[in-house]
Amino acid sequence: MLTYKAPLRDIKFLINDVFDFQTHYKDLDNGHNADPETVDMVLQGMADFAENVLAPLYQPADAEGCHFDNGVVTTPKGFKEAYNQFIEGGWQGISYPEEYGGMNLPTSLNLIKAEMIGTANWPWAMYPGLSTGCINTIMQYGNDEQKETYLHKLVDGSWAGTMCLTEPQCGTDLGQVKSKAIPQDDGSYKLSGTKIFISSGEHDLTENIVHIVLARLPDAPEGTRGISLFIVPKFLPNAEGEIGERNGVTCGSIEHKMGINSSATCVLNFDGAVAYLIGEPNKGLKAMFTFMNTARIGTGIEGLAHTELSFQNALPYAKDRRSMRAISGTKDPEKVADAIIHHADVRRMLLTQKAFAEGGRSMIYHSARYADKMAQGIVNEDDEEFEKWDDKLGFYTPILKGFLTELGIEAAKHGQQIYGGHGYIKEWGMELIARDARIATMYEGTTGIQALDLLGRKVILQSKGKIIRDYTSSIMKWCGEYALDKDMRKFVWALTKLCAEWNTLTVRLMLMARKDREIISAASDDFLMYSGYVMMGYHWARMAAVAYDKLENGGTEAPEFYEAKIQTAEFYFDKLLPRTSGHAEAMVAPSESMTAMPIESFAFLD
User: Given CB 3.0 to 4.6 Å as the disulfide criterion, which of 120, 163, 249, 533 pairs with 55?
Assistant: First the structure.
């Protein structure tokens, strides 16, 4: 049986020692609410809920799955009771304004909350998680009436939200959306079409579900320039703001999937459903990106969640399982064999999981500070402030989403390897983590889409390499502060060389693209992974610097905690960061080896 323990020591190390969230909160309008006592209360409360309520439901709910009966979806046993406990605690509204019933705490605390509940039980966490993007979209683009009608119920959790983009004929290429919205005399619209792969599209956890839907107006231009965004509630709100008559949206079926079986993935049919335009006509894609960016950060957290859960359960198994004797000499002479944790290859896998989990957490928590600033711009209706921080966060988003979810799959694989044959058996739970981790690389755009977004759109088209120059400049400035520190020299020297190489590779790809039009697509995956490894290296160096300081000057943790941070950083730099070399060499190889072969030559079959 899988178990979960919230890594509060590591979380507090990051928010208190590495990033100093308390100083950061002083610059936020709602930061005064997040005093140390409140933060500790939130962390402990969510840890208790995740460990004791959600984690025990994870495996049984996967075995049971969701039930579908003539349009009605029932979640597994215990899910509704857990959800009721969740909203009774006010957890859904943790980071939303008090005027809508929220706690008005910074967004970063909501992301930490999402990590804990997601690691304990990712499929369950998706139900309230989808509502977060729905709330953000209405807060930023909804009119006063829409905010008053929907936000109170969404924030208190009695209503849930979804994102409805994908259709049978299109996924990432939303220019092919066919759903239609016909204007009505009363200012509403009649929306018709079919959406697929809709997470939490139908369930029994809340009394109403608010769908955020992409569709076209009758006179809309073709392509993405002609997409509008609509609010389509499952039940139409009445004059008192409560649920009224059923709207024209039904669940046609739920998908039978490889993983996340207790999360309802629905086909939704809109048949003349009453819809309300949100934002401007034909500019729905821009508004939808508010939802998508929220979801992409959440999916990055999913990669971290699977990494952390696999590590937490592989570690005790490796301490208990015995096989052979260690090559360096017998470790447990009184036992029939040594624990497998004494074998170097098992340690390699465990340290890889640990390095990915703690490094990924640092990357997400750093980005969470930008999310705090961005959310403040939304609440204050300050478009300039929102755009500023949205642009900064935009650089991190594809790396968090693409890189961390790929690492989640690797970590899950290591967990299975450590368990050996038992990793393939359901009762141990490692195969469940492996199955659930696979979807994270596909949500909200596959890894390839994230890579193209990073290299093609943000690095080359939008900034012409400036975004890399700016980011590496900040790393170099930090490295300069430790240039004469003998303990940190090994880290800062490696980062300095990589920053120079990162800029050189970026320029080289831009020059190659003048003659080789396919090079950007061909190089993008390697560029994404290279960027992720360097970024995580920077975060491990920062954690090592803090750990050295705490060992010298004293900290709240035992010395062993800080020593483990330094040793994990050394492992990352010795064994994982060198992966950048292969990605660097591959990304600048001509695209011809990918494009030269005729399509009909891919396989010769009778």
Answer: 120
Let me know if residue 464 belongs to a domain: yes
Ordered DSSP codes for 98-147: GGGT-----HHHHHHHHHHHHHH-HHHHHHHHHHHHHHHHHHHH--HHHH
**Counted domains in the chain:** 2
Assess contact for 502 and 526: CB atoms under 8 A: no
**31-38: average pLDDT:** 96
How many Cα atoms occupy the beta-carbon half-sphere of 11 within 13 Å?
22
**231 DSSP β-pair partners:** 212, 276
Q: Strand, helix or coil at 333? A: coil
**292-338: pLDDT as tens digits:** 666 678 889 999 999 999 999 999 999 999 999 999 999 999 999 99
Question: Does 529 share its domain with 494?
Answer: yes
H or E segment and range at residue 237: strand 235-237
Torsion of CA 126, 129, 130, 132, to 10 degrees: 180
98, 99, 444, 600: the active-site residue: 444
- Alpha carbon 313 to chain centroid, angstroms: 21
445-472 residue pLDDT tens: 899 999 999 999 999 999 999 999 999 9
In the structure encoding, which two tokens stand for residue 279, read together? Answer: 């934002």
Can you give the pTM of this predicted structure? 0.97
Asked whether residue 426 falls in the same domain as residue 465, the answer is no
Q: To the nearest 10°, report the CA torsion of 533, 540, 51, 56.
A: 30
| Catalytic-residue membership of 384 | no
Q: What is the DSSP string of 354-375?
A: HHHHHHHHHHHHHHHHHHHHHH
- Choose the final residue of a domain: 400, 415, 447: 447
Query: What confidence tens digit (pLDDT) does each residue in 114-136 have?
Result: 999 999 999 999 999 999 989 99
Query: Residue 363 domain-assigned?
Result: yes
Residues of the domain holding 343: 287-447
Phi, then psi, of 212 in degrees rounded to 5 = -100, 115
Candidates 109, 119, 114; CA nearest to 51 is 119
Q: Could you say which of 417, 447, 477 is where a domain stops?
A: 447
End-to-end CA gap in the chain: 48
Residue 356 lies in a domain: yes
Handedness of CA 16, 20, 25, 26 (dihedral sign): positive
Q: Which helix (H) or strand (E) holds 304?
A: helix 284-320
What's residue 171's pLDDT?
A: 74
According to DSSP, the β-strands at 72-74 and 67-69 are: antiparallel
Sign of CA dihedral 343, 344, 349, 350: positive
pLDDT tens profile 151-195: 999 999 999 999 999 999 987 777 789 999 999 999 999 999 999
Residue with tokens 């005093």: 35
> CA quadruple 48, 158, 163, 290: dihedral positive or negative?
negative
Judge whether residue 377 has pLDDT over 90. Answer: no
Q: CA–CA distance from 398 to each of 390, 412, 458, 467 (Å)?
A: 13, 21, 10, 13
Q: What CATH number did the domain enclosing 400 receive?
A: 1.20.140.10
